Structure formats: structure tokens, C-alpha cells
């Protein structure tokens, strides 16, 4: 295709236009004067868009294309650049390193450092234990502290009933401990152990004489009913000096063991009532001061006494005196 | 005939698709300018207010883009240099698209060249079942005798203008009426086939789909004539750049169209030749100082024409305004006489109303309203196109009569021959409709 000459845009000479002629004359005059450098008079610029420009213009006015170019294409371009950069393993590693470094810098700022640990409400031995199991090297960033994990660890100690952990202002790790208080000594399969009111193990005991103030319980399943045992002991206060301990029998009922091998057998149900009955009898008739081997309250409406051999003999003698017979 | 049917129906379907999409472009390919309007059809915009009706369909659209550019490569309303015209169309379409901020794919075009010729057709047929059905209308349209309009011509418009049932004439819609003998009068407009082909090819090269083609004479009549004039009978004279179109309307139908192959550009070239000046200067002098009635004052008004020969010192000429008028007037008279001949050929004097409306760019020449009655008769007025929503002020002048008319044409086109049903006999043999008809006849 031949190039289009803008002169053709002018109206044809038949239309009466002499523009081309005059333009040609002017051109000839200019060349005759040797004025080649001066630019030709500006021909009217062709206002028509080129075919490609026209097509592109229409494409640009297409709403879907416009939306794509203005909203989706930039996102794609940025995502593509980032993706290409991350496709290189070195770049990825450098990025991760930088992130980790910045994170570490921030975490290690003095504002976030924990310098010491304060333990409240724990005995010396227990605090030693706590320090041992948490095993923290101060100073330490508070981001590195695993407070829930430490709380679990501390609460797993037998002597700890409840614990609270927090990082106090001034970089102090505050640990509030509520200790378990031992209520009874239990003679179990693993030796002597102290139990609290709920029957939870507090600590092992070397010798009974270490804690003479605590009552002793024994028998299989005794540790599961510490509360009942304590209630029985409470009811047995008047005979406390004589009390040796409580024995769980058959994992269902209690025997109260006194000195002189006296035993008070309590029923399965309502042992407190039976105990109160025995205490009343004791106070009224000094029952336990007599030569009784066992007080059987397993049937509360029919208490039974078991006498010692000597008492039995004495009783028989007295009865024979009463009856006037001798069975010997 | 089937070719014509297919092409025109395809265009009509395209127009429906365009209206569905809501945006359609209007392209007026004239000799002096190419105008492009972008219309948006968005349901019912203005549905009438206090004392104002919903208007005759022009309320359903809004002009959202308008652009006009100097036409290139068009002579006498026909495409002369196709590449140039294509570029001009591209310029106009792109500017209109830019203003509309949207892309248009469908375009409805009009042109005034191609030597339009009018034919009156009539057909007559027996009604089949006493009641006129769609099929009867189709058959009577098919029964119209088509004259031999020449091998290289195409039918541009074919509109049924009148139906007659037995002795009753002047029916606009005979369907459902009882009668025996159905007759139809049709108006058919043919133009040079090559002109249409060139225009369609040009538009196709701009990546646009043609959704309709109309004659410039017809569409400027739609916009410039008021409703009463269309009803009672009037002639619209669209004085364009390269040709002057004449259309005669009666009962809201165009019944005749013709064109005089002279226009405003000839006036310009007369001035350019008479005064020995460039066409651009002549055009400028024509628009600033033009007129057709000289007065004594005009003898004293001197116009600097300038030689533009590069010799500014010696070649400086002036003419008086009366000289310019003396050049313009004979040409305008010649144009108007051509119009007179057209009207005489059409038998305009037998119409009940003799109203003539002058519109188009060349009708803006001062003094035309005193010159025209001397040649065309007393009832002459200068008309401007109807106002449509959103049209820029610059595009409301008489030069935009055909562009505005084309908008109205796009909004509610008149039913043409190919919009009616196809008679059953012409259907392909395997058509389901034909089978249905056979069933109806035999059971």
C-alpha cells in the first residue's frame, strides 16, 4: 500500500479549491529563493486515528477489558514480581532470616525482659522444687516464656493446690502458690503419705512421729474417703487421746482403732450417727474404759459388745453367782 | 427478493440486539460532514409530565455522545474515496465514543446519495377466511407487482402506506377486519446498489456492525416535519452539502423521495471559482457573509478575500458583499428550481396541503425564507430538527436534521415490507409452519 499524502485530504480541485496550487507556488518560490531551511507551512494534521489507535481505543472502552486492566492486571503484575523474587531459594532464605532477626531484636528489647522470679505462698522446700522444674535462666524475654506450660508443670506438683503465673511490671515473673495442707497420714502400699482433705497426696512421710498431730488412716481405699474419715475423727474428739487411727474395711466402712486394741466398728451407712451413739454410751457408761474388745455398731439398732477373755470369765462368774450355779 | 429479505431482516435483528444492549450509534454520512451520535436506550426515561406527553418515542433514548467531523472522500452523498471516508468515520466514531465513555458496536447509518427513485406499488388479493389475518397481509404484500427497477439497484425502503379492504380505503392496520378483497399501496425506494455496498463496506472496515440503513431524505423528514405536517401532507427539503433531498410525507408515511444533486458545496465552489480564492476561504466567506437577497448596504460592505498566493503585498483583493450574494443567489435558485421539478414530478400540487419545510445545513443561508416562496410556493418555512434528550447545543441546528431523524428512526422504525410475515408459500418445504397449515386445511 502506498503511503497516504496529506495533500490528498484537501478538497479536489474541481471543488474550486486552489489550495494545492497556491501551496505549490509557495513551495516553488521558496526553492527559488534558496530558503530550503525554513519549514514548510504546516499542512492540516490528519485528525483521523490510525487503525490500530482506533482499535485500541475501542478495546479500552470495553468495560471488561477496562476492569481487567485497572483492577486485576496490577495485582497480577505485583504478585508475579513477588512470586518471581521468592522463586529463588536464596531470596527466600534471606527474607526469612531478616524477618527472624527483626523479630528477635524486638523481643529482646529491655522492656520485654524478665529478670527474676518471685514465688509467693510456698514453703521453702516447695519453692526449691518449683525453681527446679521450671529451670529458667534469667534474664529472659517474656516472649520465650511458656506461661501455660509452666502453669501446668507447677500444678502437676502434688503439694500445689492452685498456682497463678504472671509477668509483673519491672520484669518479674510472679508465681502465686496455694499449697495443699495435709489433713491425715495414710499408711498406703508405698509407705506413709500425707493426704489433704480431698484425699490428694501432699508428700511422703518418713516416720509417723514426724507428724504426730495428724491422724492416721489405713486400709485399702482409705484415701478415697478422707473427708468421711475426718468427720468421724471430729465426732471422736472426746476419745482423741486414745485414738490410734481409722481402718477402712473392705473399701466400704470404717473401724476406729483405740489403744488397748479396742475397735469400734462403724456401719456402712451413717457412720457419724453410730460414732455419736458410741460417744454417748461412753460418756454415760464409760463404755470404752471397760474391758471391751470391740464395739460392733455395724447394725446401729443393735450395738454389740465383744468382751475380752477375762471380762467374759468375770461376767460368767457373776452370772453364776446370781444364779447360784457353778458351771466350772 | 429473498436476498433483500434476508439482508434487511438480518439488519433488523441486529437492531434488536443493539437495543437489547442499550447502546447504538447513529452515523450520518454527508458530503460536508460526518456526524456520529451515541444513543443510550434505557427503558422509559421521560414518560411525560404536566401537559407534556411522552413524545413520539424520542423519550426512550438519550444522546450520550455526539461528534462531528469534516467529511472526506464523499461527493454527492456517495462515497468517492473509500479509505478517506473510512478515516473520517473512524474520527467521528472515536470522538463520540470518547464523549459517551462507552464502546459502540452497532451503527445505524444514513446517506443521501445513490440517486433515490420512488416507486408506487399496489397489490390485491382475496381474503381467505373473511377475516384478514397476518397471512393475508403477507400475501397481499407479496402480490404487489415489483417494477423492474434496474439490475444495479437495491431496495432501501419498502413501506406499505395504505391498505384497502373492499371499498374502504385508508386503513392503517387491516388485521382482524372482515372483508373480501384486500389491497395494499406500497412505496418503494431504490438506490444505487454500489453506493450501499460501499457504505456498508466502509462501516465494516471500522469494526462496526450495521444495524440499519436509511435514506437521508426519509430521516430528515421524520425529524424536521411536525406531526401535523406529516399527517396532512408536506415536503421536506434537506439542503445538504452535496445533494438536496426531497421527501414527501402524507398520513405519516413517506410517499415520495428524490434528490437534486446540488448543495451547499456547489455554492462554495462557485464562490471559490468566481473570486479565485481557496475553497476554505470561500467556505468561510459563505458562512460569514453569505446571503441571497442583496441590499444597498451590501454594496458598501467590503470583504477581504486575500489571494493566499504568497504575495501578500500585491495580491490583496476585496469584494463587496453584494458580489458574493450575486454568486450565491443563482446557484441557490438553481437548487430550488431542481426541488420544484422534483415536486412537480411527484404531483405535489395535488396534495391537500402544500407545506414545504427547508432544512439541512444550506437552509441556514440568510434570506432563503424570502427567496424560497418565490420558487416553491407560499407555504414555506425553515425547519429545525426535533429536540431530543441530551443532544448538545452545537448539534441542534438544521444541519443535524438527518442525524436526529435517524435517532427517531432507530427508536421506533416504521414497519417495512420485510418486517411482516413471510407468506407460507415462500417458506422452505420442510417448514414446520407449512406442516401446521396443511394440518389446518385438511382436518
Automatic annotation (TrEMBL), chain A:
Membrane topology of this protein: Single-pass type II membrane protein
Family matches, as InterPro entries: Cell_div_FtsQ/DivIB_C (IPR005548), FtsQ (IPR026579), FtsQ_C_sf (IPR045335)
Superkingdom, taxonomy of origin: Bacteria
Keyword Membrane included in the entry's annotation: yes
Gene3D superfamilies, A to Z: Cell division protein FtsQ/DivIB (3.40.50.11690)
Gene Ontology CC: cell division site; plasma membrane
Gene Ontology biological process: cell septum assembly; FtsZ-dependent cytokinesis
Entry annotated with the keyword tRNA processing: no
Pfam families: FtsQ_DivIB_C
All copies of domain Cell division protein FtsQ/DivIB C-terminal, residue ranges: 185-298
Location(s) in or outside the cell: Cell inner membrane
Keywords attached to this entry: Cell cycle, Cell division, Cell inner membrane, Cell membrane, Membrane, Transmembrane, Transmembrane helix
Family indicated by similarity: Belongs to the FtsQ/DivIB family. FtsQ subfamily.
Reported function: Essential cell division protein.
This protein's name: Cell division protein FtsQ
Species the sequence originates in: Celeribacter baekdonensis B30
Automatic annotation (TrEMBL), chain B:
Subcellular location: Cell membrane
Gene3D superfamilies, per database record: 3.30.420.40
SUPFAM superfamilies attached to this UniProt entry: Actin-like ATPase domain
GO biological process, one term: FtsZ-dependent cytokinesis
SHS2 domain span: 24-224
Topological type in the membrane: Peripheral membrane protein
Record InterPro entries: ATPase_NBD (IPR043129), Cell_div_FtsA (IPR020823), FtsA/MreB (IPR050696), Heat_shock_70_CS (IPR018181), SHS2_FtsA (IPR003494)
Cellular component, GO annotation: cell division site; cytoplasmic side of plasma membrane
Primary residence: membrane
A Pfam family this chain is assigned to: SHS2_FTSA
The entry's keywords: Cell cycle, Cell division, Cell membrane, Membrane
Role, per record: Cell division protein that is involved in the assembly of the Z ring. May serve as a membrane anchor for the Z ring.
Protein family according to the UniProt entry: Belongs to the heat shock protein 70 family. Belongs to the FtsA/MreB family.
Subunit: Self-interacts. Interacts with FtsZ.
Protein name, as recorded: Cell division protein FtsA
Native organism: Celeribacter baekdonensis B30
Higher taxonomy: Bacteria, Pseudomonadati, Pseudomonadota, Alphaproteobacteria, Rhodobacterales
Amino acid at each position: 500500500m502506498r503511503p497516504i499524502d496529506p495533500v490528498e485530504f484537501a478538497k479536489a480541485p474541481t471543488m474550486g479549491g486552489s489550495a494545492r496550487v497556491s501551496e505549490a507556488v509557495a513551495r516553488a518560490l521558496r526553492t527559488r529563493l534558496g530558503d530550503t531551511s525554513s519549514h514548510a507551512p504546516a499542512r492540516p494534521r490528519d485528525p483521523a486515528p490510525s487503525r490500530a489507535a482506533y482499535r485500541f481505543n475501542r478495546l479500552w472502552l470495553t468495560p471488561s477489558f477496562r476492569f481487567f486492566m485497572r483492577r486485576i492486571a496490577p495485582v497480577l503484575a505485583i504478585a508475579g514480581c513477588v512470586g518471581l523474587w521468592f522463586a529463588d531459594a536464596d531470596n527466600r532464605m534471606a527474607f526469612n532470616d531478616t524477618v527472624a532477626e527483626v523479630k528477635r531484636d524486638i523481643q529482646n528489647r529491655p522492656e520485654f525482659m524478665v529478670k527474676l522470679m518471685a514465688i509467693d505462698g510456698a514453703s521453702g522446700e516447695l519453692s526449691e522444687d518449683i525453681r527446679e522444674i521450671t529451670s529458667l535462666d534469667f534474664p529472659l524475654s517474656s516472649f520465650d516464656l511458656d506461661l501455660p506450660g509452666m502453669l501446668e508443670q507447677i500444678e502437676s506438683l502434688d503439694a500445689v493446690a492452685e498456682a497463678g503465673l504472671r509477668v509483673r511490671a519491672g520484669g518479674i515473673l510472679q508465681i502465686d502458690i496455694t499449697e495443699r495442707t495435709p489433713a491425715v497420714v495414710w499408711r498406703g502400699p508405698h509407705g506413709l503419705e500425707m493426704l489433704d482433705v480431698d484425699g490428694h497426696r501432699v508428700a511422703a512421710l518418713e516416720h509417723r512421729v514426724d507428724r504426730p498431730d495428724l491422724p492416721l488412716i489405713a486400709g485399702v481405699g482409705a484415701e478415697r474417703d478422707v473427708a468421711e474419715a475426718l468427720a468421724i475423727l471430729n465426732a471422736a474428739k472426746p476419745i482423741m487421746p486414745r485414738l490410734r487411727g481409722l481402718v477402712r474395711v473392705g473399701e466400704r466402712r470404717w473401724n476406729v482403732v483405740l489403744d488397748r486394741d479396742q475397735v469400734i466398728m462403724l456401719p456402712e451407712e451413717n457412720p457419724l450417727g453410730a460414732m455419736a451413739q458410741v460417744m454417748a454410751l461412753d460418756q454415760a457408761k464409760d463404755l470404752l474404759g471397760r474391758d471391751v474388745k470391740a464395739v460392733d455398731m455395724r447394725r446401729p439398732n443393735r450395738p454389740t459388745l465383744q468382751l475380752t477373755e477375762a471380762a467374759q470369765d468375770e461376767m460368767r462368774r457373776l452370772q453364776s453367782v446370781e444364779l447360784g450355779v457353778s458351771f466350772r | 427478493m429473498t436476498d433483500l429479505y434476508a439482508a434487511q431482516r438480518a439488519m433488523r435483528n441486529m437492531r434488536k440486539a443493539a437495543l437489547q444492549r442499550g447502546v447504538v450509534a447513529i452515523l450520518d454520512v454527508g458530503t460536508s460532514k460526518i456526524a456520529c451520535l451515541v444513543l443510550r436506550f434505557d427503558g422509559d426515561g421521560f414518560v411525560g409530565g404536566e401537559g407534556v406527553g411522552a413524545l413520539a418515542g424520542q423519550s426512550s433514548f438519550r444522546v450520550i455522545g455526539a461528534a462531528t467531523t469534516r467529511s472526506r472522500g464523499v461527493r454527492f452523498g456517495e462515497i468517492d474515496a473509500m479509505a478517506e471516508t473510512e478515516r473520517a468515520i473512524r474520527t467521528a466514531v472515536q470522538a463520540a465514543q470518547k464523549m459517551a465513555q462507552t464502546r459502540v458496536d452497532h451503527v445505524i447509518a444514513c446517506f443521501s446519495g445513490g440517486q433515490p427513485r420512488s416507486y408506487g406499488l399496489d397489490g390485491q388479493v382475496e381474503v381467505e377466511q373473511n377475516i384478514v389475518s397476518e397471512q393475508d397481509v403477507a400475501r397481499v404484500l407479496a402480490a404487489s407487482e415489483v417494477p423492474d427497477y434496474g439490475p444495479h439497484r437495491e431496495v432501501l425502503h419498502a413501506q406499505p402506506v395504505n391498505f384497502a379492504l373492499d371499498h374502504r380505503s385508508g386503513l392503517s392496520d387491516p388485521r382482524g377486519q372482515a372483508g373480501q378483497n384486500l389491497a395494499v399501496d406500497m412505496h418503494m425506494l431504490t438506490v444505487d446498489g454500489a453506493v450501499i455496498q460501499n457504505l456498508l463496506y466502509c462501516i465494516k472496515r471500522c469494526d462496526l456492525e450495521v444495524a440499519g440503513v436509511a435514506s437521508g431524505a426519509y430521516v430528515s423528514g421524520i425529524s424536521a416535519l411536525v406531526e401535523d405536517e406529516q399527517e396532512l401532507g408536506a415536503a421536506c427539503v434537506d439542503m445538504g452539502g452535496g445533494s438536496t433531498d426531497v421527501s414527501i410525507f402524507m398520513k405519516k408515511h413517506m410517499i415520495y423521495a428524490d434528490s437534486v444533486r446540488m448543495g451547499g458545496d456547489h455554492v462554495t465552489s462557485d464562490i471559490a471559482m468566481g473570486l479565485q480564492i481557496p475553497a476554505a476561504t470561500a467556505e468561510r466567506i459563505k458562512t460569514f457573509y453569505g446571503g441571497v437577497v442583496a441590499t444597498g448596504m451590501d454594496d458598501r460592505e467590503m470583504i477581504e478575500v486575500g489571494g493566499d498566493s504568497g504575495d501578500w503585498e500585491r495580491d490583496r483583493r476585496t469584494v463587496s458583499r453584494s458580489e458574493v450574494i450575486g454568486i450565491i443567489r443563482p446557484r441557490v435558485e438553481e437548487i430550488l428550481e431542481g426541488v420544484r421539478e422534483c415536486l412537480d414530478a411527484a404531483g405535489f400540487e395535488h396534495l391537500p396541503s402544500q407545506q414545504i419545510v427547508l432544512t439541512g445545513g444550506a437552509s441556514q443561508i440568510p434570506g432563503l425564507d424570502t427567496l424560497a416562496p418565490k420558487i416553491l410556493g407560499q407555504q414555506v418555512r425553515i425547519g429545525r430538527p426535533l429536540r431530543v434528550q441530551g443532544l448538545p447545543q452545537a448539534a441542534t441546528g438544521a444541519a443535524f436534521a438527518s442525524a436526529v431523524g435517524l435517532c427517531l428512526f432507530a427508536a421506533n422504525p416504521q414497519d417495512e415490507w420485510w418486517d411482516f410475515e413471510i407468506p407460507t408459500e415462500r417458506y422452505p418445504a420442510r417448514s414446520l409452519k407449512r406442516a401446521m397449515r396443511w394440518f389446518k386445511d385438511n382436518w
